Structure formats: structure tokens, C-alpha cells
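Listing S7. Sequence submitted for prediction.
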Amino acid sequence: MNLLKNKKRKIIIAGLLVIVFAGGFLIGQNLFAEDNDIEKGIEPGQLAPDFTLMNLDGEEVSLSDYRDKYVLINFWTTWCPNCLAELPHLEDLQNNYPDDVRVLAVNFGENQATINEFMADMEFEDFMVLLDEDQAVGREYLVRGVPTNMFIDRDGTVIDRIVGYMEYEDLIAIFELN
């Protein structure tokens, strides 16, 4: 009798595992399909969607304000180690090419008090942080991870979209500034 109970338990457990793995596989397939759609959302060659956000001084800043420059839109957060490692590279890019490039560091989803406190501890001089507290611009740009870098040419056309940490040399190479 115990042997029969053990056999039934094993069959039930095996059946549950099959259901869990099959369900996970199907959900994963759906997520991958959505990820593929996300990658197609904003492609190189398309006009970058214009937006207006507040900077830390309470002034409105629009992407279209910089149509005569290359623009790097960097979506970042204070809790992301790769974002924090990348911020000095962004400042260097801005400082080394002030006539050619504008870096818009769009904080993704944190409140102004958090950003003000964070920036007070940093030593950035000419670094524009924009607040996307409700993540509306990030959603429009289909941000799913940070850091996400959007490279925009002087005409407002998307050059490239890179998710993940980038070295300084890689940032300037996309704009062909070297």
C-alpha cells in the first residue's frame, strides 16, 4: 500500500512539474515575443519622439531644443551600479564636446528630492539631469532596463539604442567624434 502511495505521489509531483515548466515556457515565449516587439519600437533611422521634462532647477527642457546637436539620452537611476559607473563618462562626453553633443541624463522614476540629494554628493559641473518621475518618457522610449542610451543625430533621428553600461570610447564612437 505504501508503495502505491509513493508511486501516486511521484506521478502527481511529476505532473505538477510538467505543468509548471510548460507554463513557464509559454510565459517565457510570450515575454520574448514582447521583447522582440520592444526592440522594434524605436529603430535607427526613425525620428526620435520629442518630449519635455523638468530639470533640477524646475526649468522645462525639450529634446527639440537641441536639434542642432547630437543628443545622448541616458535613462538611469541612483540605485543602478552600472548607471553610476557610466555617469562620469557622460559628463566627460558633455565637457569634451560642448559644441557638438548634449547629454540629457533622464532619471527614470525617482523623485526630485532623491535626485537632489544624490547630485549634491556628486561633483558634476555641467550635467543636465531631467526628471521622468512617472516614467512616461521612458515608456515612450520603451525603456526596460537601465542604463539605456539613445543616440540622436543633429536632425533628431535615432542613430542607435544601447541597453547596458558603456565605456567612454564606445559613447564617442557611435557619434563618430574621435
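Caption to Listing S7: primary sequence and predicted C-alpha cells for the chain studied. The first strand starts at residue 52 and ends at 55. Residues 1-40 form one domain.
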